[in-house]
Amino acid sequence: MSQENVEIVRRVIDAFTRSDLDAALQDNDPEIVLDWSRSRGLEAGIYHGCEAVRAFWSTFFDTFDPIVVTVDEFIECGEHVVAPNRARFWGRDGIEVEAHSVWVVTLHNGRIVRWQLYHTRQEALKAVGLED
Fold first, then answer.
1. CA 53/CA 33 separation, integer angstroms
2. Whole-model pTM?
């Protein structure tokens, strides 16, 4: 199941990079939790349910265009996929921002139930019970 989970996460990230919000959200569980509380940028918080997650990402897409995400690697860990990444965003005024983070995506029965932002690989791996 882990490789299937990696493919789901890869598909979602590819959809974000294409700015295809509908495709990016199609694998979400209705009760998904997006934990962006560690964000140092826009909209830090915890979002519950599909509509709240859609509103969060809609705001993000309204602010930045395009968004390019490059995942350094996908680390399988049972129901979790750890994805260290670099994201480049361009604001509407042409200002470019680059952010480095690590996502922990948790899936259950092929559906994303949690997407959590971490700042370092070490804290993300610790969160899923792995050591770096």
1. 8
2. 0.93
- The kind and range of the H/E element at 77 are strand 75-77
**For residue 14, what are the contacts with CB-CB under 8 A and spacing of at least 6?**
none
Distance CA 84, CA 104 (A): 9
Structural element, H or E, at residue 131: none
CA dihedral 38, 81, 10, 17 (to 10 degrees): 0
pLDDT tens digits along 29-55: 999 999 999 998 778 999 999 999 999
In angstroms, the CA 74 to CA 107 distance is 14
CA 83/CA 121 separation, integer angstroms: 9
Tokens read off for 10: 């890869």
Question: Whole-angstrom Cα distance, residue 132 to residue 127?
Answer: 11
Phi, psi of 7, rounded to the nearest 5 degrees = -65, -35
